[in-house]
Design brief:
The protein is of the alpha+beta class and about 400 residues long. The protein has one domain: Orthogonal Bundle (Cytochrome p450). The protein is about 45% helix and about 10% strand. The chain is built from 15 helices and ten strands. The strands form three sheets. A five-stranded mixed beta sheet has the order 1-2-8-5-3, with helices on both faces. A hairpin with a 5-residue loop joins strand 1 and strand 2. It starts with a helix and ends with a strand. The structure holds protoporphyrin IX containing FE (HEM). Protoporphyrin IX containing FE binds next to helix 12 and helix 15. Protoporphyrin IX containing FE (HEM) binds next to helix 12 and helix 15.
Length: about 400
């Protein structure tokens, strides 16, 4: 018995797993941006509800993230202390945008814009073939034999911008659309340079007015794009304002452009390592393994307890989808790329009331581009680690040098 007790009391052998993580965890540290997965792994085992340097907690276990997605105590409305709070609407474009778009709204305000966006988006896609294969093939072939090019700049950015421009019905220069998509996410990022932030506010305010003008042109016309279908919906949904429509359009542009442009680099990088053939199951497994949407925020609406940890009212709760998607309790050998695995538990697109509206389009966009790149024999110049943009919650490669043979 004594022997057994002394064996049990013996200090454990040095851990061969990932290194311990400093708490509170910095979700914008260079190490985390370069590779969050060993950090998630450690947090999942040792601090599954971990404090975050910027305040609040981050959840890394699949069960906790999944439960949080359905937890009515956690909301999306910004806390009243946030710059995004409704009282700042006259001061910041971001606060006014947040008051109109689903990711920052809870019921009952969430229902109207979400319902309108879903319907209009569905009608836009049902009524047309977006021609993604042809667009992806043309852009990819145009780079054949050109020597190393940046995949984002030369192919995936023009691809995502052209697709979203056409579907949404935005009559604007592609470079401007890219600037707006990028600006949307910068508006919600922590404030660093007040002068740059003021300029961004002005640019976004100007673009909102431009879209309001494009919306006016749609009134009374047969709808053929998202703006047109939204305009037509105002007859059925009288509370749907022009500003709801304008801001929904900016949200879709930003989500569509930024996730697809950068996600293409992740996919091609994986294709070089794992091989194809690329099909929908391949794309879904790639997204499970390394999703662009790593962490989504919620706010505790009241004093709350999560897995035994108290969270104060108004504090953020970050759901690490990227960690949940590699939880070994749910996915066997989670680091292994296996396109035959069951994706039913994957949390790439969220779940519940705020589930991604663009999932089918996102998959179609990724699939068409990855297939075109595969068919053209596109290859990264290096299969070493990629550099990532310093964006909270997103895993967006900054660039990927590739070559495409002259074919
Ligand atoms: C692979 C690409 C994409 C990924 C990984 C992704 C992932 C996500 C995630 C994780 C959420 C948050 C869910 C939540 O808060 O519970 C979300 C929300 C959303 N996504 Fe996507 N998304 C992608 C592409 C797109 C595209 C192409 C569009 C549209 C053009 C889109 C439109 C939206 C919208 C409108 C929401 C907000 C829904 C709401 O709050 O009610 N996404 N997406």
């Amino acid at each position: 018995m004594r022997l057994l007790q002394s064996l049990l009391a013996r200090p454990k052998a040095p851990c061969s797993g990932p290194k311990p993580v400093d708490l509170p965890v910095d979700l914008l540290s260079p190490g985390f941006l370069a590779d969050p997965y060993p950090i998630y792994d450690w947090l999942r085992r040792h601090a599954p509800v971990a404090p975050v340097t910027a305040g609040g907690v981050v959840l890394t276990r699949h069960a906790d993230v999944r439960a949080a997605l359905a937890d009515k105590r956690l909301g999306n409305t910004p806390s009243r202390f946030s710059t995004l709070a409704a009282r700042n609407r006259a001061k910041y474009v971001a606060a006014d945008l947040a008051a109109h778009i689903p990711p920052f709204l809870d019921l009952p305000a969430h229902r109207l814009p979400r319902q309108a966006m879903s319907r209009a988006f569905h009608r836009t896609l049902a009524g047309r073939d977006p021609g993604l294969e042809a667009l992806a093939t043309d852009l990819t072939r145009a780079q054949a034999g050109q020597g190393p090019v940046d995949l984002l700049e030369a192919i995936s950015r023009p691809y995502a911008v052209a697709a979203m421009r056409q579907l949404l019905g935005l009559d604007a220069d592609p470079a401007e659309l890219k600037a707006v998509a990028q600006g949307f996410f910068l508006l919600f990022a922590p404030l660093t340079d007040p002068a740059k932030f003021a300029a961004l506010n002005d640019r976004m305010a100007g673009f909102r007015s431009r879209i309001a003008g494009m919306l006016e042109v749609r009134r009374g016309a047969v709808p053929s794009d998202f703006l047109g279908h939204m305009a037509a919906l105002q007859a059925d949904l009288p509370d749907l304002s022009g500003q709801h429509i304008v801001d929904a359009t900016i949200l879709l542009l930003a989500d569509g452009v930024e996730n697809i442009e950068t996600g293409a680099a992740t996919l091609l990088h994986l294709l070089a390592r794992e091989g194809g053939p690329v099909d929908e199951a391949w794309v879904r497994e790639a997204l499970r393994l390394d999703t662009p949407g790593q962490i989504i925020p919620r706010v505790a609406r009241e004093e709350t307890e999560i897995a035994g940890v108290a969270v104060k009212a108004g504090h953020p709760v970050f759901l690490a989808l990227g960690a949940a998607n590699r939880d070994p309790g749910v996915f066997a050998a989670p680091e292994v790329f296996d396109p035959t695995r069951d994706q039913a538990q994957a949390l790439v697109f969220g779940r519940g009331a705020h589930r991604c509206i663009g999932e089918p389009l996102g998959i179609a966009l990724m699939l068409a581009l990855a297939r075109a790149l595969e068919a053209a024999g596109a290859r990264p110049v290096s299969t070493g680690p990629m550099a990532y943009q310093p964006r909270f919650g997103h895993r967006w490669p900054a660039r990927l040098e590739i070559t495409i043979g002259a074919g």
